[in-house]
């Protein structure tokens, strides 16, 4: 018998129906070390078979290479998938001089590049990846709304904005989805963004729901040997004493996993799904993987329901995490709250 297909949920009031779990495609091109391309392509096929239809990319992943990598899959399954991409991080002057760009001229130029690399006429969900507070939000969201009017984009999303920013943007043009980091290790979004999204009917798309892999237990040894092409070697939570302290925090995750015959990754995914439901939010976590077996494992977490005692055991973890979620937090929503 074929594996069951996951349920669907709508992104925002008028957005697309997508599987309740999406797929983060970033690691297929950059940031987490070498990729086996054929396994990554097989992962995309497996995702679609299981009803995982929201594919997440951004123009900066691999400097456009991730969008290009996805293009053949998107072409082959255009009507079955929802392709989401993002603009706002300008790497053209080199990574030492990355800039956040929200000005309308940049937005109009960025969308053309993403359309070309993805090989599509229209982007299903177009996110502002980071916010530049120097540009009035209404100006940027107004420019994004014009892309919808021009038929280049179907729905709008924001990433790493505060609750107040989400409200302001939504008043300019309906926002279908807010994508921000949310996991057992990263709960700062619960301060304002989560409540605002619930109130406005904006879906939440938790990124790095596995804590960039840390929550799977794969980084149990302090100083885990990460290659120079793995940017986690610069992430405060993955390095030195922080890594050891954070690995110790996973004890209840492993205990629950063992008791349930599940994996730590599945417990982490079930947690974020249920945490969103508590807030009455439509939620579509986008765990990133390049391996079909992990895709199947992650999808199976949609059927895991943690009980009150298990949730209580997981509750204290985030407050005890050592290290910020980025080496430089200045462009995150947390910096503006
Ligand atoms: N909006 C933003 O600013 C932003 C920032 C970061 C990421 N994102 C998006 O969010 C997506 C997901 O986040 P993420 O990739 O950073 O982190 P994540 O989903 O928390 O973790 C991904 C890592 O976990 C590993 N993994 C996945 N499933 C696993 C399993 N079942 N068992 C063991 N290891 C597993 C992956 O390795 P393998 O790939 O080798 O399986 C990868 O190293 C990205 O792909 C990207 O699309 C958005």
List key phrases describing it.
single chain, alpha/beta, TIM Barrel, 7-stranded parallel sheet, two-stranded antiparallel ribbon, 11 strands, 14% strand, binds NADP nicotinamide-adenine-dinucleotide phosphate, NADP_OxRdtase_dom
Please give a structural write-up.
The protein is of the alpha/beta class and 337 residues long. The chain has one domain: TIM Barrel (Alpha-Beta Barrel). The chain has twelve helices and eleven strands. The strands form three sheets. The protein has a seven-stranded parallel sheet, covered by helices on one side. Strands 1-2 form a two-stranded antiparallel ribbon. Strand 4, helix 2 and strand 5 form a beta-alpha-beta unit. Helix 3 packs across helix 4, helix 4 packs across helix 5 and helix 8 crosses helix 9. It is globular. It starts with 7 loop residues before the first strand and ends in a 17-residue tail after the last helix. The mean pLDDT is 96.
In short:
With 337 residues, the chain is α/β, with parallel strands linked by helices. The chain has helices spanning 37-49, 65-76, 104-118, 137-149, 163-172, 193-200, 240-248, 251-260, 264-278, 292-300, 308-314, 317-320; strands at residues 8-10, 17-19, 23-24, 54-56, 82-87, 89-90, 99-100, 123-128, 153-159, 175-181, 203-207.
């Amino acid at each position: 018998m074929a594996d069951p297909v996951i349920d669907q949920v709508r992104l925002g009031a008028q957005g697309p129906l997508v599987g309740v779990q999406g797929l983060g495609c970033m690691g297929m091109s950059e940031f987490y070390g070498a990729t086996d391309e054929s396994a990554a392509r097989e992962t995309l096929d497996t995702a679609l078979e299981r009803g995982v239809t929201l594919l997440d990319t951004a123009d900066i992943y691999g400097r456009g290479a991730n969008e290009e990598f996805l293009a053949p899959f998107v072409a082959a399954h255009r009507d079955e998938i929802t392709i989401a991409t993002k603009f706002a991080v300008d790497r053209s002057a080199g990574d030492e001089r990355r800039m956040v760009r929200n000005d309308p001229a940049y937005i109009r130029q960025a969308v053309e590049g993403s359309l070309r690399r993805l090989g599509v006429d229209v982007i299903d969900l177009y996110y502002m990846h980071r916010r530049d507070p120097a540009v009035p939000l209404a100006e940027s969201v107004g420019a994004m709304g014009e892309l919808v009017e021009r038929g280049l984009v179907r729905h709008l999303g924001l990433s790493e904005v505060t609750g107040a920013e989400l409200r302001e943007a939504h008043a300019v043009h309906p926002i279908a989805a807010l994508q921000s980091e949310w996991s057992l290790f990263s709960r700062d979004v619960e301060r304002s963004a989560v409540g605002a999204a619930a109130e406005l009917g904006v879906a939440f798309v938790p990124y790095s729901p596995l804590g960039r892999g840390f929550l799977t237990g794969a980084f149990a040894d302090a100083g885990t040997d990460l290659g120079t092409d793995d940017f986690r070697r610069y992430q405060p939570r993955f390095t030195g004493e922080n890594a050891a302290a954070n690995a110790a925090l996973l004890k209840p995750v492993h205990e629950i996993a063992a008791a349930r015959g599940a994996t730590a990754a599945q417990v982490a995914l079930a947690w974020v799904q249920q945490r969103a439901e508590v807030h009455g939010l439509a939620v579509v976590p986008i765990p990133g993987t390049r391996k079909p077996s992990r895709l199947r494992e992650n999808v199976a977490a949609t059927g895991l329901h943690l009980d009150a005692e298990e949730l209580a055991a997981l509750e204290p973890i985030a407050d005890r995490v050592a290290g910020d979620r980025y080496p430089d937090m200045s462009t995150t929503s947390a910096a503006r709250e």
